[in-house]
Amino acid sequence: MTLAKLLRRLQDLVANLVAALETMLLFPALFRDPFRTRPGPFHSAYWRRRSLDSLADEVDRLFTAPLTPPNMCAMSDQMRAQLSAALQSSQINMLPSYTRTLPTGAETGTFLALDVGGSTLRVSLVHLAGQGTMAIRHVASTPIDEEVKLLEGTRFFDWMASHIDTMLAEVDAEDGRGPVPLSVGLSWSFPLEQTSHNTGLLIHMGKGFMCSTGTVGQELGQLITEACRRRNLSVAVDAIVNDGSATLLSRAYVDPTTRMSLILGTGTNMAIHYPVDCIGRAKFGDRPPAWFEGAPHVIVNTEMSMFGGAVLPLTRWDEILNRTHLRPDYQPLEYMITGRYLGEIVRLVIVEAVETAHLFRGELPHSMRDAYSFDTSLLAAIEADPSPQLTISAALLQKEHPGTHAPRPEDMRFLRRVCQTVSRRAAGYLATAIHSMWSLHNDADAEAESPADTVPGKAPKQVTVIEREGNPRSLSIACDGSVINKYPGFRDHCQAYLDQLTHETAASRESLDPSPSLIHLDPAPESAILGAAVAVAIAVSEQP
Ligand code: GLC
Questions:
Q1: pTM given for the model
Q2: Which is the most buried residue in 78, 103, 172, 517, by most CB within 10 A?
Q3: How far is CA 337 from CA 268, 342, 419, in A?
Q4: Whose CA is nearest to atom 2 of ligand 1?
């Protein structure tokens, strides 16, 4: 190598070193390893200690700054634009189901309902008695732990079949063993490309599930019937619905005016009953022309979790979560508001607080090093703790994540503030997303009422404006899921944000009644299994 070349190499080396040092000084967080327990002497945090209060203030500022009503309205408008665009062309969200008919409440029968949720499998027998009344006759719930989530391909369906087998054996040893296959309704809490009311092709699943590995594009009903056949069980999957759609159906059985539903548990989603004419034709796949004739509306599985990217601001902890996720950017809203992620966001704040603000005396409990090790149920317990020094939740924390020292009251006060901040932001972002869906719904109503429909020679659109009592824009949303229905105060906070949002909208549009509660969140417990049973009842009643 010539001397000139050697000098050029040395120059490059020095330039690279200077650039690296510059980046380290400007963006120390990029070089912070979230899995360390204590800061080392080369760690910027080692030299920059701060108080827990000042970190809690910063967390509060970063998480709640976007939650002013005008800003939330602006974000809702941007999300509505994303929803509208996806309604025309997306293949992974705003998915029209095959369910056009809502139940009348008169459907009857006893059905086997399966609910594959993000953290529980439920196998149950549901009895629909007509007149809008229904009852769960028998239910077997099994947690889906991390090991099961990691089962790939057909192994997951074999696991499911074993639980169907056990439950049926408990009820009646003959069920599913006779010549006539047992009719099953399935509520599926994952995206699915539906190909008929009882078939659908698997899409990547999310929520840490690996069962779509090697099975993407395969038919879900068939995967289940074949797994059952391997156990000598004869079942026919007669209806498949997303859990959001199941919630809508279960509530509509009782209240036929229901048009929207919400899930917020391990994951989040909304289903809407929406005019077929307002959805891009390409999204319906290969349906026979006759399908469209009797179908003014269809239930749309919005896969709402996938919206909000580049709209809802992220904090540095959200960025770490997204960057280290199996599928970065796949479900932006979900990563900030659901049961699977709230605990992880708080854990990432804890890791920083241990390093920089001497939380837990600067020692991260060993068990908290792993991603997703801080369960959202702990956040709920900390927020709900009635003891003045938070001793109840401190004991729970020490039990689940033992450290050398028990958490101090100041540690617990810091944690409580962070949990409140993270859950309030989730309630605010959820309200923003619901508001965007409500606006989309109103757009469709407005289009139905628009004079363009009365242009001579143009066939009127087959859109029915939904009659609701009182204010025609008011809406009841059937909601289910552990976070929305059980996390302390969550639904009330979300409702309060919704009231602010609709008030803000009303103030800017004179045509709307300015009464604040235009959107109501109404709990619909057990909706996945009840809705799966309703879906089978509708399918069976529609069979020729
Ligand atoms: C996830 C899934 C979606 C499901 C929702 C609620 O976001 O993608 O299909 O409905 O969670 O369980």
A1: 0.86
A2: 103
A3: 8, 6, 12
A4: 190
